[in-house]
Amino acid sequence: MLRSCFLPFALCTATAACNIDFTDDTPPAGGTGVLDDDGGDADDDCCAAHPSPDCENPILSTCVCETDPRCCEQGWDASCVAAVEALGCGVCGQPESCCDETDAPGCDVPAIETCVCEFDPVCCEESWDAQCVADVFLFGCGICPGANSCCVADGAPGCVETDVQACVCAEDPSCCVEAWDFQCVQEVEAFGCGACMPSTDASSG
């Protein structure tokens, strides 16, 4: 389906989550649009109380902390975990993600869903398809990680190191919307986002 929804991603102001600025060369560390809700042993799981401030998902933690700054200043306690769903910032206990294509409309993080659908209503009316996943970054609603290293041109949008990805895509959005190609790999170092070292694996010789 052809859509005429491409607006500058910086225009997204629908929700608290949209206030995250991914145009900075030093984006927030850790986390993506994917909510770690599988009960793993991560020290900064957004769905589990932990003594350190903030949590692994910068979109979700910003949404919570705009209402309760203490969660990002002191510690992520039980009240912060409860606020995840109470404030509509995310859902704990669902494996689905706004970074995955589905045949159903909408996605499981209300803040991201609202932000995307303000600009691309089809995502909440018909299905959360590949365009909707791209819209997460395109409209500044969050960032979805790619599958491979940022030093590999695999032809799919984004790369797995989310801080490097955010830094590169802030300068060249096509790397997160269209494909992580050889130019994107070169831009890792060109934009000061990281370093891609040539292979020196002696075992390959």
Structural summary, described in words:
There is one protein chain. With 205 residues, the chain is mainly alpha-helical. The chain has two domains: 18-144, no CATH class; 145-195, no CATH class. The protein has helices at residues 58-67, 70-73, 78-86, 110-119, 122-125, 130-138, 162-171, 174-177, 182-190. The termini are far apart. Residues 4-42 and 199-205 have low confidence and may be disordered.
Topology, pairings included?
Layout: H1 58-67, H2 70-73, H3 78-86, H4 110-119, H5 122-125, H6 130-138, H7 162-171, H8 174-177, H9 182-190
Low-confidence stretches: 4-42, 199-205
Helices and strands, in order, run as HHHHHHHHH
Tell me about the largest β-sheet. none
Query: Which structural class do the helices and strands define?
Result: mainly alpha
Say how many strands there are.
Answer: 0
| Oligomerization state | single chain
- The total domain count is 2
Mean pLDDT: 75
Please estimate the helix content: 25-40%
The end-to-end span amounts to 49 Å
Alpha carbon gyration radius: 17 Å
What is the strand content?
under 5%
**So how many helices?**
9
C-alpha geometry: globular
Task: Sum up the structure in keywords.
mainly alpha, 2 domains, disordered C terminus, 205 residues
Describe the structure in brief:
With 205 residues, this protein is mostly helical.
